[in-house]
Design a protein that fits this description.
Largest sheet: none
Number of helices: 15
Order of helices and strands: HHHHHHHHHHHHHHH
Number of strands: 0
Distance between the termini: 21 Å
């Protein structure tokens, strides 16, 4: 196991969690009519808190690229789910919010499950450069069809239903972004010229921007319970599929596969339990209040009092994933 890759992936998860807490602080006040409109992004660009979140998510992408350059896709991507417990732990320490047995149990379940999953798979090998063009087209096309279908369904839905559909689409986009990113890292040896002359870097940027756009809409549409599971869990699932099925990464077989499935199930259950935690709403509200005060963002806090969806919905905040 490449421990450097694991460490970089954990740092990426932490950076990504910080980013999405900051971005949700602003997103929750955006009107519903801006859904899937470029005006949503243009409006968000005027908020310093959201820009701080954009800076930290950029750092997360850099750390993830470094992790993928040193490790396999199916090793790095499952680690991104750690952003949920990492953010909750950080918020509890900074804002003195005590964690209950439910939260500690969910964190322990996710941590143990992730350890079992990674230790059972122990992926190695695989080379994106050996993937034929037709396979790339089929794989990317399949992801695109699913994402477009989810977005189309989401446009007809409202509230939490829309947030859930957009969240799933976001997770798929981020998983595909990681696959492109892994392919791009194989061109690092050619320097800047070699990297910029290869198509995966441009595919990475494109898929990443689409994922970011969908994530902003998922964060704006509904509450945590609806949006979070798709964003957090589909990213590593898509990443593992691309790593093993498309790139040919080798994993352990036999009983290790059963252990990996059980580990993945434990991670999923822990993530859902944390997503339902009321402490996430309290912590993120505190973060949003303190950060807005410190940077003088001038966000309209009065809107929180009048917009029932923004301030009254249970778990009206969320944490994302890359």
């Amino acid at each position: 196991m490449n421990f450097l890759s694991v460490g970089l992936a954990i740092l990426a998860a932490f950076s990504n969690a910080t980013s999405n807490v900051l971005q949700r602080t602003v997103n929750r006040d955006e009107p519903a009519e801006l859904a899937l409109s470029p005006r949503l992004i243009l409006d968000l660009l005027h908020h310093k808190v959201w820009l701080a979140g954009l800076a930290t998510v950029t750092l997360s992408f850099i750390l993830q690229a470094a992790a993928l350059a040193n490790g396999d896709l199916s090793l790095v991507q499952p680690i991104v789910v750690l952003e949920l417990p990492l953010t909750l732990l950080l918020a509890s320490l900074v804002y003195h919010q005590s964690l209950h047995r439910r939260e500690w149990g969910a964190i322990a379940l996710m941590t143990v499950g992730l350890g079992v999953l990674v230790a059972s798979l122990v992926p190695n090998g695989g080379d994106p450069n050996h993937v034929k063009a037709l396979v790339w087209v089929i794989g990317v096309g399949a992801c695109a069809v699913v994402v477009v279908s989810l977005v189309a369904l989401g446009r007809r839905a409202e509230g939490n239903h829309r947030a859930g559909l957009f969240g799933i689409a976001t997770g798929i986009c981020f998983g595909l972004t990681a696959a492109f990113m892994k392919a791009a890292t194989t061109h690092f040896s050619g320097g800047v010229t070699g990297l910029l002359s290869s198509w995966p870097i441009y595919a990475t940027v494109t898929a990443g921007l689409v994922g970011m756009f969908l994530m902003q809409n998922a964060l704006q549409a509904g509450n945590l319970v609806a949006a979070q599971p798709g964003i957090t869990l589909l990213d590593p699932v898509v990443g593992i599929i691309w790593g093993v099925v498309i790139f040919g990464e080798q994993t352990r077989a036999g009983l290790f596969i059963i252990a990996a499935v059980l580990g993945a199930a434990a991670v999923a259950v822990g993530a859902v339990l944390l997503a339902h935690s009321p402490l996430l709403e309290v912590a993120t509200d505190l973060i949003g209040s303190d950060v807005n005060d410190s940077v003088g963002d001038g966000a309209n806090t009065g809107a929180d009092k009048t917009d029932g969806r923004s301030s009254q919905s249970p778990g009206a905040v969320t944490l994302g994933s890359t």
